[in-house]
Amino acid sequence: MKKKIEELILQAVETLKSEGVLDQEIIPNITIDRTRDAQHGDFASNLALILAKPTKSNPRQLAEKLIAALPHDAAITKVELAGPGFINFFIDPNFQFQIIRQIHDEGREFGLSNAGAGKKVQVEFVSANPTGPLHVGHGRGAAYGSAVSDLLEAVGFDVHREYYVNDAGRQMDILATSIWLRYLEECGELVHFPSNAYRGEYARDIARDIHKNASNEYRRPAELVLEDIPPDEPVGGDKEEHIDALIARAKTLLGMPLYQDFFQIGLNTILEDIRIDLSEFGVEYQEWFSERQLMDDGSVEKALERLRAGGHLYEQDGATWFASAKLGDEKDRVVVRENGQSTYFASDIAYHMNKLDRGFDQIIDIWGADHHGYIPRVRAAIQALGADDSKLKVLLVQFASLYRGEEKVQMSTRSGEFVTLRQLRNEVGKDAARFFYVMRRSEQHMDFDLKLATSKSNENPVFYVQYAYARVCSVLRQLDEKGWERNLLLGMENLTLLTEEHETNLLGTLARYPEMLERAALQYEPHQLVQYLRELANEFHTYYNAHQFLVDDAKIREARLNLICAVKQVLANGLGLLKITAPESM
């Protein structure tokens, strides 16, 4: 109904334009809101108030002209002018039943729209370094990014989902060296394992596989590995200097071709594990974009040359700096170190240049909340590249804490092990994990209760929503058991019999689904969809407990069946967008 009113107002605006009342250049921003008081109608628009200033008009007089120009529509019984210029719309009570017919006719397409008008949007999310398994913190970003992408697609955007693979740089060298040191242990060498290396069991597993396949091919004596290496932090040294020296020693003793074996095997093994993990979590990408690609094809240098040509780079202390402070950053940033190596930020500039060059209308980066300070420098880079930084939207995701009832679960151990996304899925299931992850705004901290997520009770929100769907399926099975056949047409002809308060509430909630979906997508807030599904499920359960559906009166029975089947369809649509199953029995 909201869409219909928008269309009617737009037609009225066009009429006033043709009559010379409004300027042809005016593009109205039409907003329709549900009223809080039924005495003021069902919907209201403040368009006359918005247009009053640019058109230099009295808002009440302009509202009167808009009302007079509105086309007739049978669904609207009355339109009133209120207050300083609000336009209130009163809807025919019988029109509320149209929603059941619409849901039946549109099925899975119900709620979808073309608000995005095919605009190209790139959504980059998760993008965890391929230096270890995904943990529960990554899981929230994965669920949120996936849901935002699917919502945008549902309202007509052309969405390109992307994972940025940080497969270059120091962290990957630390991984490769960590695996090699574990390999040397497998060979029987006694080597001190650095405090700043990757200590997780996964590094040992990769090393064990390499040793199994290559035996002692990569073995080098421990005394050569550790000779003249600066001390590690536990013995009074600098852990960064220690690990960097070991990386250099690995490259020297192995030679780059053999060293690259450890680099590539570690990368490929962990990245494939990440791919599988995300796929099983319901997350798919159109592209896995390699950072090394930016190095290999000269994109990093090209980006820096573009900045240099714009006068945004300068040399100082042997390094190359980006003058980002002039463009809103808190300070200037190094893009090429004294040793000639480009920084991670230089790669990030090149990556965003690549995104812009690919012609996306909007770029959405989904980052952990700890990256908040990174936003100004990326915006500065986009401006320096000569692009409109309003194309960039950064969405932040807060960390999640795990609880089992009242007890907080330790997220990591001193050995470098942590609670992985896979472990979480194995304990609570994909459905509960995804649902819980998007129950709150992404920027809000969340406590994930493992005990609640696995409980089969009404207190578990995902169980409560799924159970509503399963209950409708159970009613339909009972219908068959009674030997009755659905009469869809009879139900549609008698929808006006749905006069109980529970029925009226359900009709109103079902009608809100399309506008809620569009709002959730445009505001990047999948929690709005979660809240809606919980509300719809609650209204259905309340209705189920208060009334019999399979009554002897066929007219009432079929009307109620049509209503609950509409509920079933909307629950399926909403859960489907969240990549959560809709079980027929529980």
Structural class: alpha/beta
Average pLDDT score: 94
- Spans where pLDDT lies below 50 across 5 or more residues: none
Task: For the record, give the distance between the C-alpha atoms at the N and C termini, rounded to a whole number.
Answer: 35 Å
Query: What is the global morphology?
Result: flat
Strand order of the largest sheet: 7-6-5-11-12
Radius of gyration: 30 Å
Beta strand %: 5-15%
Oligomer: single chain
Helix content: 40-55%
What's the β-strand tally? 15
How many H/I helices?
22
Question: How would a crystallographer describe the biggest sheet?
Answer: 5 strands, parallel
Compact summary:
Helices cover 51% and strands 12% of the residues. The chain is an alpha/beta fold and 586 residues long.
Structural features:
flat; 586 residues; alpha/beta; five-stranded parallel β-sheet
Mind explaining what this structure looks like?
It is a single chain. With 586 residues, the protein is of the alpha/beta class. 51% of the residues lie in helices and 12% in strands. It is built from 22 helices and 15 strands. The strands form 4 sheets. Strands 7-6-5-11-12 form a 5-stranded parallel beta sheet. Strands 1-2-4-3 form a 4-stranded antiparallel beta sheet, with helices on one face. Strands 8-9-10 form a 3-stranded antiparallel beta sheet. α5 links the parallel β5 and β6. The longest helix is centred in the middle third of the chain and has 25 residues. The radius of gyration is 30 Å and the shape is flat.
